[in-house]
Amino acid sequence: MFDTPLTVLSRRLRAVALAIGLGLGLGLAALPADAQSVNPTALSVQEQQLLQSLHKVEGRVSIPDAKSGVLIQPEGQAWRDFHEKTLPQVGTWGLLGTLALVLLFWVVRGRIRIEAGPSTRTITRFNGFERFVHWLTASSFVVLALSGLNVTFGKHILLPAIGPHAFHVVSELAKLAHNYLSFPFTLGVVLMLLVWIKDNIPNGVDVVWFLKGGGILGKAHPPAGRFNGGQKLIFWAVVLGGGAIAATGYLLMFPFYVTDIAGMQTAQMVHGLLAVAVAAVIIGHIYIGSVGMEGAFDAMGSGEVDLNWAKEHHSLWVEDATRKNPGIVHNPGRMAPAE
Questions:
Q1: Partner residues linked to 304 by β-bridges
Q2: Are the CB atoms for 150 and 158 separated by under 8 Å?
Q3: Of 252, 235, 272, 300, which Cα lies nearest the Cα of 145?
Q4: pLDDT at site 308
Q5: Burial (Cβ within 10 Å: 0-12, 13-18, ≥19) of residue 192
Q6: 43-80: per-residue pLDDT in tens?
Q7: CA–CA distance, 324 with 201 (Å, rounded to integer)
Q8: Residues in contact with 175: Cβ distance below 8 Å, sequence separation at least 6, in sequence order
Q9: 122-162 per-position pLDDT tens digit
């Protein structure tokens, strides 16, 4: 009697199943007794050890974008640690530390007054275009700083306070503002460089200004030109730091046009650190230019500053400006003659 094809196939399948079962049984029997009772997932390699042992985990893809075949690249672990741990720590200590120093300075030094008292005359310090450049850059930077801080601290501070839905809306608007206001900020930095670089070249007068405390520490007011040593530091911090912030920001806004993923990770780290550093400098600048020094805000407010203030803080500039243009001094507070 001949077997049908179906009977032969069934017999072969039973033989294969028997062989597989026998092989598994022998393999398990060869394992130590304790290994047979342990969950295999508990013996998996730790993530950090795996990343340290591998340079990159990637495969092959048929699409033109070859980088999509990369599954794991260990540099991403370092970037994640920076983004989640290092930058928040640096930002917290840097910004809160600066605020603490400003508060301490306010308590110890108080507001810096005009020693001779306000006069009845003013001198033109900045024209309308210069003030436009300043406020264009300043207002853009404030929004950029706040929206950037939301990326680092928002989920820890803002999210618990306003809830997921509101946080989503705020973060979307902050992202749009951060991207689009980068352009006027960059324009402002370029214009600042072009307009004020001639007055911000360091010289020997700045060294003397720093050695004497710049009129900030102590009562002496050392001579200074249109910009003193401290203002020149702020200028170069904004121009160089702000320029680098803008450059790295555009690398992130337009990914993979200039660099690869490793370059973008480096750009993000540089972007974050420089943003914190420049923000700390600007906090001190805002304090001195507003409540910290009497008469200072008028320079970028109306453009006209008290003549006594100008003589105390920028005596060399006053001498030079009045010699070149006597009409730069005004007398808006002149009293009418007695009848």
A1: 124
A2: yes
A3: 272
A4: 94
A5: buried
A6: 455 555 655 555 666 667 777 776 666 666 777 778 88
A7: 20
A8: 147
A9: 999 999 999 999 999 999 999 999 999 999 999 999 999 99
Whether 90 shows a pLDDT value over 80: the answer reads yes
**Rounded Cα–Cα distance for residues 182 and 250 (Å):** 9
CA-CA distance, 125 to 62, in Å (whole number)?
A: 64
Cα pseudo-dihedral 317, 318, 323, 324, rounded to 10: 60
Q: Which whole-number Å values give the CA distances from 109 to 82, 99, 102, 226, 297, in the listed order?
A: 37, 15, 10, 24, 18
SS3 of the chain: the string is CCCCHHHHHHHHHHHHHHHHHHHHHHHHHHCCHHHHCCCHHHHCCCHHHHHHHCCCEECCCCCCCHHHHEEECCHHHHHHHHHHHHHHHHHHHHHHHHHHHHHHHHHHHCCECCCCCCCCCEEECCCHHHHHHHHHHHHHHHHHHHHHHHHHHHHHHHHHHHCHHHHHHHHHHHHHHHHHCHHHHHHHHHHHHHHHHHHCCCCHHHHHHHHCHHHCCCCCCCCCCCCCHHHHHHHHHHHHHHHHHHHHHHHHHCCCCCCCHHHHHHHHHHHHHHHHHHHHHHHHHHHHCCCCECCCCHHHHCCEEEHHHHHHHCHHHHHHHHHHCHHHEECCCCCCCCC
Q: What is the pTM of this model?
A: 0.78
Give the separation between CA 94 and CA 67, rounded to whole angstroms.
Answer: 36
Terminal alpha carbon distance of the chain: 146
Residue 161's Cβ-count burial label (10 Å; 0-12, 13-18, 19+) is exposed
Q: 1: pLDDT confidence band, cut at 50, 70 and 90?
A: very low
